[in-house]
Design brief:
The protein is α/β, with parallel strands linked by helices. It has three domains: about 25-45 and about 535-645, Golgi alpha-mannosidase II (Immunoglobulin-like, Sandwich), CATH 2.60.40; about 55-65 and about 230-270 and about 280-340 and about 370-530, Glycosidases (TIM Barrel), CATH 3.20.20.80; about 90-225, Galactose-binding domain-like (Jelly Rolls, Sandwich). The protein contains ten helices and 34 strands. The protein binds alpha-L-arabinofuranose. Alpha-L-arabinofuranose (AHR) binds near residues 58, 260 and 493.
């Protein structure tokens, strides 16, 4: 290269380098932005709804079967598989055993479960058993020194057969624990045993369950079940870790049973509550709209027990004559049986033992009535293009209101010509959309029905929301809080997902899990913080200065005077907020800050890195009538201000 050219290239390179580093400096040296938040801490603007944050649930993503409902056996109620084969059951032939496994559609333990597994054993002995095996919901999680309740319905060709229930390590084939049930009879009966795992067991989900037989003969089996310890030790109960995660959200209500799950794809596949109560053997199971059959182990009473366990009030959605694929029942006489069914369902929930359905509930194990304030008529009826909702809603409303005048009735779509107590609105939006909509309810008049945001979520992240979604979720929640005089309830959806391949049908979902463990997404943690620190009255506040992607809400706890302040900084630069309390007769003397932050919007929690993003807390050194707070870039902040030292 000639010297002149070389000098020129070096000069160009130096100029480019200087330009690059100047722009790099510019990129990294954006000055922290500043804003002022003025809080009117005199008289409250309005009361804040005590029920603002709750849960919405349905059978989707293996929320119950393979999720919250603690049953460990997959497809315990034997049905024909999709291709006429057995789903999730295998024939076991150890050593020289010879056997055959098929579905017998002529015999089953009940009218609801009219078929069974027929195990025909031609050759078996103590060292060569035959039997059936099930690998559960992506494995069977076992812990040491733990009792597992096994049960099954069976009958034998010849009285007296013995059946051994066993838990077996997948990798080694080693039997970890077993118990033999003696004397199976020739008519259908339920058998039970307890399997205790050894102290030396290493926790793992690489296990399967088997029923083994050591003599020739024929055995029919159905409703094979295995339960680990459950939350509050409730029989037929729920998974402990998931209940604890939900409890931490301090939910005020549970909206159930859906969602699309309430409607079913067709009228025939709707959620028929009467088929979900009573002994499991009398529950026929049903096909859900999310592509798999529901065991209905999580039935109406189990939903209510879930409410009771987590101190939530039920928001009972009743089937209202419209199903997902477009079938509907016209208002009038044809709809009356559905209205009657809803009235009976409400009686099952609230009736005394002297009523028909209250007595049934007592028989099913819960003598005391459950509290009930809200009943929802259908789900997303704006999709009913026949235009039948207003008529259907009116028929349900009038009948329910006449018998239960104290109930608040929720419409799922705008209704013409009839009173609506509460309107359920659903929002599945992008982060940008939620940022833009954070002031949506600030602008709405207070003259219409109350609002229930029955489903909402930022649609970013898979299978659970990432930190970017948590930021826009939090921004949206500030709007819900500022307007919780109008928005009486709100629930994120979907709530739960099994993260195994083929587990989710919908993403993102708030809480993820596999057979053994679970985790909360960043959005989950935002909700934990927002719900835990929230007052019962709304304080007016005004923000000025750099307002881009900064969001705030302020509430106060009446009895203690504690101010709960939410501040979301959805910018990649820090923002200093000057906080001014207008009246502060007794200025705050101490404060705590709870921070959820991440270096990037794509950062997230996963099943293998469950606590990548979790809240941190710090004491605020200097608070008072006027003080400033620097919000970290990309951060969700909850600040509690206490008049006296905390
Ligand atoms: O939350 C998932 C689904 O979204 C619900 O079942 C339905 O109501 C909505 O369309």
């Amino acid at each position: 290269m000639p010297a002149r050219m070389h000098r020129f290239s070096v000069a160009v390179a130096l100029v480019l380098l200087a330009a690059f580093s100047a722009s790099a400096q510019q990129m990294t040296s954006i000055a922290p932005r500043s804003a002022t938040l003025t809080i009117d801490d005199g008289a409250a603007k309005a009361a804040s709804s005590p029920t603002l944050y709750g849960l919405m649930t349905e059978e989707i993503n293996h929320s119950y079967d393979g999720g919250l409902y603690a049953e460990l056996i997959r497809d315990r109620a034997i049905r024909h598989g999709g291709w006429g084969q057995l789903d999730h059951w295998r024939l076991v032939q150890r050593g020289i055993a010879q056997a055959n496994l098929e579905i017998d559609s002529k015999t089953g333990p009940s009218t609801a479960l009219p078929v069974s597994l027929k195990l025909t054993i031609t050759s078996a002995n103590a060292s060569s058993p035959a039997g059936i095996a099930n690998s559960g919901w992506w494995g069977i999680p076992l812990h040491p020194r733990t009792d597992y309740q096994a049960s099954f319905w069976a009958k034998a060709s010849v009285a007296g057969a013995d059946v051994t229930a066993a838990l077996i390590d997948d990798d080694s084939g080693r039997i970890l624990t077993q118990q033999t049930v003696h004397g199976i009879g020739t008519s259908w009966q339920r058998y039970r045993t307890t399997l205790r795992t050894p102290a030396s067991l290493t926790p793992s989900a690489h296990n399967h369950f088997a029923l083994l037989v050591t003599q020739p003969g024929t055995l029919w089996l159905n409703l094979v079940s295995l339960f680990p310890p459950t939350y509050n030790n409730t029989p037929n109960g729920n998974r402990i870790d998931l209940m604890q995660r939900m409890a931490a959200m301090h939910p005020a209500f549970l909206r159930f049973p859906g969602g699309n799950y309430l409607e079913g794809n067709t009228i025939a596949q709707r959620f028929r509550w009467k088929q979900t109560i009573g002994p499991l053997v009398d529950r026929p199971t049903h096909m859900s709209p999310w592509g798999y059959r529901s065991s209905d182990g999580m039935g109406l009473l189990e939903f209510l027990n879930w409410c009771q366990d987590l101190h939530m009030q039920p928001v009972l959605a009743v089937y209202a004559g419209y199903s997902l694929k477009g079938e509907h029942v016209a208002a009038g006489p044809a709809l009356q049986p559905y209205v009657q069914s809803a009235l009976e369902e409400i009686e099952y929930v609230t009736g005394s033992r002297s009523t028909q359905w209250g007595a049934q509930r007592a028989k099913d194990g819960h003598p005391a009535p459950f509290p009930l304030r809200y009943v929802e008529i259908g789900n997303e009826d704006q999709f009913d293009k026949s235009g039948s909702y207003s008529g259907r809603y009116a028929q349900f409303y009038d009948a329910i209101h006449q018998k239960y005048p104290g109930l608040q009735i929720i419409a799922t779509a705008p209704v013409t010509g009839h009173k609506v107590d509460v309107l359920d609105e659903h929002y599945y939006e992008s982060p940008q959309q939620f940022f833009a909509m954070a002031d949506h309810y600030d602008k709405l008049p207070r003259t219409g029905p109350k609002i229930f945001v029955g489903e909402w979520a930022t649609m970013e992240g898979s299978p659970t929301p990432d930190f970017g979604a948590a930021l826009s979720d939090a921004a949206w929640m500030t709007g819900l809080e500022r307007n919780s005089d109008l928005v009486v309830m709100a629930s994120y959806a979907p709530l739960l997902t099994n993260v195994n391949p083929m587990g989710p049908q919908w993403v993102p979902d708030l809480i993820g899990y596999d057979a053994s463990t679970s985790y909360g997404s960043p959005s989950y943690w935002a909700q934990v913080l927002f719900s835990k620190y929230r007052g019962d009255e709304i304080l007016a506040s005004a923000m000025s200065g750099s307002l881009l992607r900064i969001f705030a809400s302020v509430t106060r706890e009446k009895s203690t005077g504690v101010i709960d302040l939410k501040l979301v900084n959805a910018n990649t630069v820090a923002t200093t907020v000057q906080i001014h309390l207008d009246h502060a007769a007794q200025p705050p003397a101490s404060g705590m800050q709870y921070i959820l932050s991440a270096p990037s919007t794509t950062a997230t929690n996963t099943i293998s890195d469950p606590e990548h993003i979790v809240p941190r807390q710090k004491r605020l050194p200097k608070v008072g009538r006027d003080f400033s707070l620097t919000l970290e870039p990309l951060s969700i902040n909850v600040i509690t201000l206490h008049a006296k030292g905390k």
